[in-house]
Design goal:
The chain is built from 9 helices and 18 strands. By secondary structure, it is α/β, with parallel strands linked by helices. The longest helix is centred in the N-terminal third of the chain and has 14 residues, at 62-75. Bound molecules: aspartic acid.
Amino acid sequence: MKNILLIYTGGTIGMVKDDKTGALRPFDMQKIYEVLPILRKLNCNIDTFQFNPIIDSSDMNAEVWLKLASYIKQNYSNYDGFVILHGTDTMSYTASALSFLIENLSKPIIITGSQLPLGMIRTDGRDNIISSIEIAANNEVEIPEVCIFFDNKLFRGNRTTKINAEYFEAFYSGNLPSLAKVGINISYKQHIILPKTSLSLKVYDKLCNNVVIAKIHPAISKEYFEAIGKIENLQGMILETYGSGNAPTNKDFLYSLEKIINKGVKVLNVTQCKAGKVEMGHYEAGYTLKELGVISGKDMTTEAALTKMMFVLGNFSNQQEQKLLLETSLRGEISM
Ligand code: ASP
């Protein structure tokens, strides 16, 4: 029998109806079998751990990610897989951050949540938890990745973005197909899943918070970038550009960006599009960015780019190495 550790961080999924008042309140993880007795039928042992306090995922930050990564490290040898219950709002950021913090992963870490609380009749949380645990405990396919399971699909976590605040199909992975689909059977796409490594686990314990995301838009002003340039200790910037990595070509904009880069800030270019990639040589508007020293984020999501920047700047100090790491796929976050 496989051993699974189920970690409850907070979010909509954990809300159940109070028997007396009828109001929704966070559930007690110790009572998971009372809420979902069907879990006893899964062929695995499930231990639980609940965050104290549990948090809405809007309150996720670097400190919590480091605690989560270190908690998994402490418990790594005792379990065959980990399932994390998490709010959907920042789930893609958490999945991306954990993927970078945990190197040489050889077991599944599956993050899931729900659009409707577990205590509601039509909840999607029930199926999401059951399938996540079933996948984490499966004997068929090894999944040495940080994944998100949602709406019957298993995704590489650092490829996802939350795209829907209404329907159950909340996550999208525009540049990589899902790793598995749940129907009558669970069909795994083994050729997409990362290969297992025999190298020993390495969990990093630093993330740099001195980073910003700047989204290019038609009303962007030079004052905007000047203000960013004045942020104390700024070390990294994710530049969300148009299409295949394009930004305005006007001199004011380029000059203020150049000033930021000359201060030593690493600027990583990702596209605002939900699929496709940055190719800075394609148009004049992108080529100029390349000339200035902007680094291509290729087909990384904004969530992956931000957390990767935090990881790289936090753990590596050599400028050349930082650039190389940002450009290279470390955990399958960039297509080869
Ligand atoms: N605000 C909630 C959270 O992200 C929404 C959810 O769980 O879906 O924690």
